[in-house]
What does this fold into?
Amino acid sequence: MFTTVKACSLTPLRQRKGHIGPEELASRWGIGLETARKTVDKTTQLAVRNFTESMGGRRLKPIHYQLKYRRLRCEMFVDVYMAKCKSLRGNRCATVYCTPFHWIGFDPTPEEKDAHKTLDSLFQTVGIPSVLIPDNAKSLTEGEFRRKAARASCPIYPIEPHTSNANLCEDGIRETLRGYRRMMSATNTPGVPWDDGLQYYSAVRCHTVNTIHETQGEVPQTIMTGDQSHMSWLAEFGWYTYVWCMSPEDTSMERKKLGKYCGPFFNEGDAMSAKILTSKATQVNGTSVFRVTAEEARSEQFQKLSTDFEASLRKS
It folds into this structure.
């Protein structure tokens, strides 16, 4: 899958002190000098340690963070999207990551200053890009954001000031918002679950074949990870459609409750966990979620349940 499409080459990183050269490697591994030279060229030494000035009198500083997560063969643009309203989960903005082949991810946060927290989930669940390219926002170029990127040996190369069109995130945000607004209009979605909707729709875009030349007919998620992408956790239900959810906490005989599907749970619960909006404007995590059949949707009982659901939702 990934072998036929290359996202981009790795950005050269500054050699750490203690870098092992071909001669040393040939001696330690018992291999030929030419083989050692080719090996050094094709590998990295992101966590190599410098012993030249160490006499063994103190402990070495741990620098294994660079080796914990997958390293991606692509650059990644980053920007902050500011929402027009506070979401149901209390978020006011989202940090957006986008690649040249239009893999895109929205990670909502309560404030712009929390952008550095999204780096943790990006590194853990996706990987460490070869370079991060933000605009000149301080939340993306200074402080904790820069410190975390430096610890992962991920350089930050900001674009020129006042040239926002050079940031590919702008294109990714525009196209994602365009599709999400169509989705909202088609399903009569209120504005407050914008963070769930943008997370869901950006994931859908990552698992959809596009017409960008670099993808060569592949989905962006496959190019990003190198593994064939799975869409079962995204394709079972449509956005903001009615579903049945089993409630194990309900002691009554009617344990099957009506709810609205708000996408999958990201980084929480089971792999097939769904985010269900209840009639009280709360969200529950459920795996026992079922479609509403066409026959059920036509019944008078369901019509009454859905009317009561909408009325309760508006009051909450």
